[in-house]
Each structure stands twice: as structure tokens, then as C-alpha cells.
């Protein structure tokens, strides 16, 4: 036997490589984890899970599945279903039953599974989990209605599907052990009651401990994990095979218990689940020889085809009947249904047990499930994005900005970006500031971007980056810290903190709690606000071969410009930040802050470009030479004021001055 330490370390390295490759290629990691397990297991002969873990393999898989199901069930909150559209409710109820029935019939007809095993297979594979849907949505980027339905279907159906699989398995085992319906139903009822009681009791106990503060923060993760293991083991000891149901009920109880810090639990459990998921898939795939999958032959491909092109469309047809979704959105919704975490983990766990019971074709359960997972992930990773574009049901590229704040600074920057065709959405809890943004034609969201309501309802279509432009530094800090996970740390930006200028390093905020710093060290909110109040304006200027970036910066030394954003020829906006130096070239557009200038300096074609649709009080800065304070023509003002003609800036309809016509 090879060195166990080297093998365990190797599993970690292989898992890391698979996860990294999936991240780079923007496909679900489960695909590479399964392929890696097959490669290092039966193909290379390097990993033999049974020889490595021996009798511990079964308990290891069981406890890992328990943690994964517990983490999934923590996301199932009952109040979410009350606000969901009818489509989502049908997807996770009647639609799931349709997919279940189609899968069971298909595997019974084509692979000759006995009916009880076929029903179990249908329950296991009726699940589309968020661990597969979430990365696929990032790649496909469907329109909001489709993304909303798929995301919530995955979140809600994950624990529901696990519960259905556990119930189907318990009933199957009870029937095979007793051979009498009365005894089978009694055993099934005992299993169901034990799982419900132990899970509810464990959830109540843990929820009470956490709500009353009897568990310190330093012991939170250890205590939760220990109680999950204890609930699983005690339930199984009281009634065979009831442990998975117990931890699922435990998670649902905690998720719906007021005052329980579920978010803190989830942060740790998501990390732990990712570790267990990576190792588990490699170990399970290493037990499946390619010959087992290929040995299923064309009937297995027929099962896959029926589930993809009969089961899923029927489910979506039922779920979307009478809804507001158009046929394009329904088609894309029917196209995307990858299987993932619950299907792989639960099928592996049940296959191990059923093989020991000598259930006919139990040895085919795991290979068929893995074939379904690999087939759906590969097929939909390759075709979902092109299909979304073909159906015109893909959202625009995520090149826009979610702007936290609707104050004068946020409105000025948001308007300048919006008029250059960059998608923006301003978020603020101040209704008056938000109403001013709406009057300017800017998309808005009334509320905090870090609220629970925003997590469910904030439309981020086309928005892939965040600008924290709020008045309060501490609020900006909170928003950027929360947004780093969603957008990525390189795509979260914030203004310099007002108190940071000139501070020693020991007084500066840790970079882990802030976004990338925008613009200039001293250019915090209050400085920007003061400049705008004094008459400075945000303007857009296009660079050319005869007017480069250096000339742009040096065009008016008496009124220096502060560059804010650089838009490349494709319209992608890059913020100027302290940690990166941009070198815009010809064809780029610079959005900068220009201090107030005398009348006529920036009329049409004057002084290096027009205003990006923002007029100053005297009207001299109108983008298209809008009339000034005294009704004079902008172009004439430029001539009278001595402003030499420069490169024409980005054009937008200007606004008349205070007394202009």
C-alpha cells in the first residue's frame, strides 16, 4: 500500500487543481472533480479509496453527506416561498414529481432497474443543486426571469430533493427487509418519525444555545459541527437510516428560527462543504471504473436523452403554464438542468448500502448517476451560453456598476457613466436622493445593497462591479466587505476614507475590509462634494492621435482635471485607482472631473471636449453648445472667452443654463 499521508495530500492537490481549472474555464467544478477521480483512481491506479480508508470509508461518506445536506438545508427559509412566483413554486413541487416519474420510468425501461430502485434513482436525480447552477449561471448569464427561477429552484430543491431521496430509500429498504407492506410502512414511519423528532430536537437545542449566547463566537463552528455529527449518529442509532433526514430537518429548523446567526454558520459550512465536496467526489469517482460507465451502453444514453429532452421540458411546461415568461425564456429554462452535489453524494452513499443488501442492479446506480452528472454538466456547459444567445435570452455582459449611494457625487458619476452607455444602478435608502436620480433617468433601487431584501430582489443584470460612493466611510466599508464575495475583490471599489489622508500605516483600515481605492488619495466624498458644489463638472473627452492622454492631463494647468474613468473603444469602463496605472490611447474616452471655469471656456468643441450631458449653472459647459447664463451661444462663448478649439468630446444633449433659452 502506498504512503497514506502522500495519498491524502495528493487528494488535496488534485482537488485544488480541479477547482482552479473550473474557475478559469468558468464551468462547474464537479465535472473536473469527477474526471480527476476517475483519472487518479481506476485509470492511473494511484488511488484506491477502499484500501486507503478500509471500513472508515462508509462512515466518512455518511458524515460528509450529512454536513453537505445540513448546509444545503440551512438555505431553505419558509418565508422565501411566500414571495416566490408561481413558476418557482411549481418547479419545486409538481414539476419535481414529473421529473422524478420520467427518470424512474426511463431507467426501468432502458436499464431494467427494478421499480423500487428506479423510484430511488428518480428521486436522487430530480435535484438541480445550487453548487452546479450558480457557476453555470455566471457563465451563461441568462435574463433576469430565467436566472431568478433557476437560482431559487436550485436553492429550494436541494434539501427538498435530499429529503425525497432519503424517504424513497427508507421505504425501499423497509419493503425489502420485511417483504410486507404493513411492516414496511411501520419501519418507514418509524424512520420518518425518528428523523423528524431528532432533527427538530437538535435544531431547537442548537438554536436555543445560540440565541441565548451560551456558545462563544470562538466555539460556534466547532459546536455546530459536533452537534450535527451527534444528531446524525444518535438518529441512526435509534432508527437505522434516519440520520440524513435528521440533519436535514435540523438545518431547516435553524434556518427558520428567529435570532439564530445562520449566516455565521453558513460561512463556515460553505467552506467545509467545499472541502468535503472536493474530496468526496474524487474518492467516489475513484471507485467507478470507466468500464462501468461505458458498460451501461446505449440504454444509459437513452435515459440521459429522455431526462434532458422529455423530463425537463415537461417539468418546465407544467411549471410555466399561464406565467408571464415568453417562449424564449421557457426554452432556456427547459435547457438548463445540471445535476450535482446531492445526486452524486447520496447515490454513492445509497449504492454502497444497497450493494451490501444484494439489490439487483444496485452496482449500476452510481455509474448511471455519474454518467448523468457528467453528461448534463458537459452538455450544458458547452451549449447553454450559445443557446441563450440564440434565443436572445442572455443578459448583457456584466460591464456595468452597482453604485452604493445616490448623493450628488454618486449621481454625477452615475449620470456620466450612463450617458456613455455603461449600465449603472444606484442604491440608497434616502428616498429624496433616489428620487433626484430617477428624475435624471438613472436606474435605482430603494434600499441598502447589503439588506436581506436586496439579496433577493436587487436586479444586477449587466452589473459586474461595485462603486461604494456613500457619504459615510463606515457604511462604504461594510458594503465593500460584503460585496467582495459576490463581485470579486478586484471588482469592488470605494472612495478614500476622509480620515486616511496623511495617516500612518497603523491607523489605516485593513485592505481586507475595503475595496480598491478610487481616483486619488485625498479625493474622498467630502472633497468631491465640495468641488461639485463649487461648480466642478464631470465631463467626457475622447482621445485621438493628435490629442493623447498626456495632453488631456496638461490641457489646462490652471484648472487641473482629475481623471475618474477610462472607457476603451469597446465601451468598457475602467476606474482610475491607486493600485493600478492606466494608459489610455487613441479612441479611448476619459471621464474626468473638471473644476469650474470662466464663461465660454468649454463651449462646443472648446477646451478639450464637451460635457457628458451635464450643464453648469452658467450653461457654458453644455455638451452641444447649449445657451449660457445670458442666452449666449456656447460656441460664441468659447470664441469670445478665448477658448481654443480642441478635440470634440462625447456628445449628449446639454441642459440650458440658469437664464438660457
From TrEMBL:
Query: Which residues are in the RCK N-terminal domain?
Result: 401-501
Q: Which is an annotated GO molecular function term of this record? A: antiporter activity
Query: What subcellular locations does the record give?
Result: Cell membrane
Task: Tell me one GO biological process term.
Answer: proton transmembrane transport
| Alphabetic keyword roster | Antiport, Cell membrane, Ion transport, Membrane, Transmembrane, Transmembrane helix, Transport
Give a yes or no for keyword Membrane in this entry: yes
Q: Name one GO cellular component term.
A: plasma membrane
Q: Membrane topology for this entry?
A: Multi-pass membrane protein
All copies of domain Cation/H+ exchanger transmembrane, residue ranges: 14-388
Q: Which Pfam families match?
A: Na_H_Exchanger (PF00999), TrkA_N (PF02254)
Protein name, please? NhaP-type Na+/H+ or K+/H+ antiporter
Amino acid at each position: 500500500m502506498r504512503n497514506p499521508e502522500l495519498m491524502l495530500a495528493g487528494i488535496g492537490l488534485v482537488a485544488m487543481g480541479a477547482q482552479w481549472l473550473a474557475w478559469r474555464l468558468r464551468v462547474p467544478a464537479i465535472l473536473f472533480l469527477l474526471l480527476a477521480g476517475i483519472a487518479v483512481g481506476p485509470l492511473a491506479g494511484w488511488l484506491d479509496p477502499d484500501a486507503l480508508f478500509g471500513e472508515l470509508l462508509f462512515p466518512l461518506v455518511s458524515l460528509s453527506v450529512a454536513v453537505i445536506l445540513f448546509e444545503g438545508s440551512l438555505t431553505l427559509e419558509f418565508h422565501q416561498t411566500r414571495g416566490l412566483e408561481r413558476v418557482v413554486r411549481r418547479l419545486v413541487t409538481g414539476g419535481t414529481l414529473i421529473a422524478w416519474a420520467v427518470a424512474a420510468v426511463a431507467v426501468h425501461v432502458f436499464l431494467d432497474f427494478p421499480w423500487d430502485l428506479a423510484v430511488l434513482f428518480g428521486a436522487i436525480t430530480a435535484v438541480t443543486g445550487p453548487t452546479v447552477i450558480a457557476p453555470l449561471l455566471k457563465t451563461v448569464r441568462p435574463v433576469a426571469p430565467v436566472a431568478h427561477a433557476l437560482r431559487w429552484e436550485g436553492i429550494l430543491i436541494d434539501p427538498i430533493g435530499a429529503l425525497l431521496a432519503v424517504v424513497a430509500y427508507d421505504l425501499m429498504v423497509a419493503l425489502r427487509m420485511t417483504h410486507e407492506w404493513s411492516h414496511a410502512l411501520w419501519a418507514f414511519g418509524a424512520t420518518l418519525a425518528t428523523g423528524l423528532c431528532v432533527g427538530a430536537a437538535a435544531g431547537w437545542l442548537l438554536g436555543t444555545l445560540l440565541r441565548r449566547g451560551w456558545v462563544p463566537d470562538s466555539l460556534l463552528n466547532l459546536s455546530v459541527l459536533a452537534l450535527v455529527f451527534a444528531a446524525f449518529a444518535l438518529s441512526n442509532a435509534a432508527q437505522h437510516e434516519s440520520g440524513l433526514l435528521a440533519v436535514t430537518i435540523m438545518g431547516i429548523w435553524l434556518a427558520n428560527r428567529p435570532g439564530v446567526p445562520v449566516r455565521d454558520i453558513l460561512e463556515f459550512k460553505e467552506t467545509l462543504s467545499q472541502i468535503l465536496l472536493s474530496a468526496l467526489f474524487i474518492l467516489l469517482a475513484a471507485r467507478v471504473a470507466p468500464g462501468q460507465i461505458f458498460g451501461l451502453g446505449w440504454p444509459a444514453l437513452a435515459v440521459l436523452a429522455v431526462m434532458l429532452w422529455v423530463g425537463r421540458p415537461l417539468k418546465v411546461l407544467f411549471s410555466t403554464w399561464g406565467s408571464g415568461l415568453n417562449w424564449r425564456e421557457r426554452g432556456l429554462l427547459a435547457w438548463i438542468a445540471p445535476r450535482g452535489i446531492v445526486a452524486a453524494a447520496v447515490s454513492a452513499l445509497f449504492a454502497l448500502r444497497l450493494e451490501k443488501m444484494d439489490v439487483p442492479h444496485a452496482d449500476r446506480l452510481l455509474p448511471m448517476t455519474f454518467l448523468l452528472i457528467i453528461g448534463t454538466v458537459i452538455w450544458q456547459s458547452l451549449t447553454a451560453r450559445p443557446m441563450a444567445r440564440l434565443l436572445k435570452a442572455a443578459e448583457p455582459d456584466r460591464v456595468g456598476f452597482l453604485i452604493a449611494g445616490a448623493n450628488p457625487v454618486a449621481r454625477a458619476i452615475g449620470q456620466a457613466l450612463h450617458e456613455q452607455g455603461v449600465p449603472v444602478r444606484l442604491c440608497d435608502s434616502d428616498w429624496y436622493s433616489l428620487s433626484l436620480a430617477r428624475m435624471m433617468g438613472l436606474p435605482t433601487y430603494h434600499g441598502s445593497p447589503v439588506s436581506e431584501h436586496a439579496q433577493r430582489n436587487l436586479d444586477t443584470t449587466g452589473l459586474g462591479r461595485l462603486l461604494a460612493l456613500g457619504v459615510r466611510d463606515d457604511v462604504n466599508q461594510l458594503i465593500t466587505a460584503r460585496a467582495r464575495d459576490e463581485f470579486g475583490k478586484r471588482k469592488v471599489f470605494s472612495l478614500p476614507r476622509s480620515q486616511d489622508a496623511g495617516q500612518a500605516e497603523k491607523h489605516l483600515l485593513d485592505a481586507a475590509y475595503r475595496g480598491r481605492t478610487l481616483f486619488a488619495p485625498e479625493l474622498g466624498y467630502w472633497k468631491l462634494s465640495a468641488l461639485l458644489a463649487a461648480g466642478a463638472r464631470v465631463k467626457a473627452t475622447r482621445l485621438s492621435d493628435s490629442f493623447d492622454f498626456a495632453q488631456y492631463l496638461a490641457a489646462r494647468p490652471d484648472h487641473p482635471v482629475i481623471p475618474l474613468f477610462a472607457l476603451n473603444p469597446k465601451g468598457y469602463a475602467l476606474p482610475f485607482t491607486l493600485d493600478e496605472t492606466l494608459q489610455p490611447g487613441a479612441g479611448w474616452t476619459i471621464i474626468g472631473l473638471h473644476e469650474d471655469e470662466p464663461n465660454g471656456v468649454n463651449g462646443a468643441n472648446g477646451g478639450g471636449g464637451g460635457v457628458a450631458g451635464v450643464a453648469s449653472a452658467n450653461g457654458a459647459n453644455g455638451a452641444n453648445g447649449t445657451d449660457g447664463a445670458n442666452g449666449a451661444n456656447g460656441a460664441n462663448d468659447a470664441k469670445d472667452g478665448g477658448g481654443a478649439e480642441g478635440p470634440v468630446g462625447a456628445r449628449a444633449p446639454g441642459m440650458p443654463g440658469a437664464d438660457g433659452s
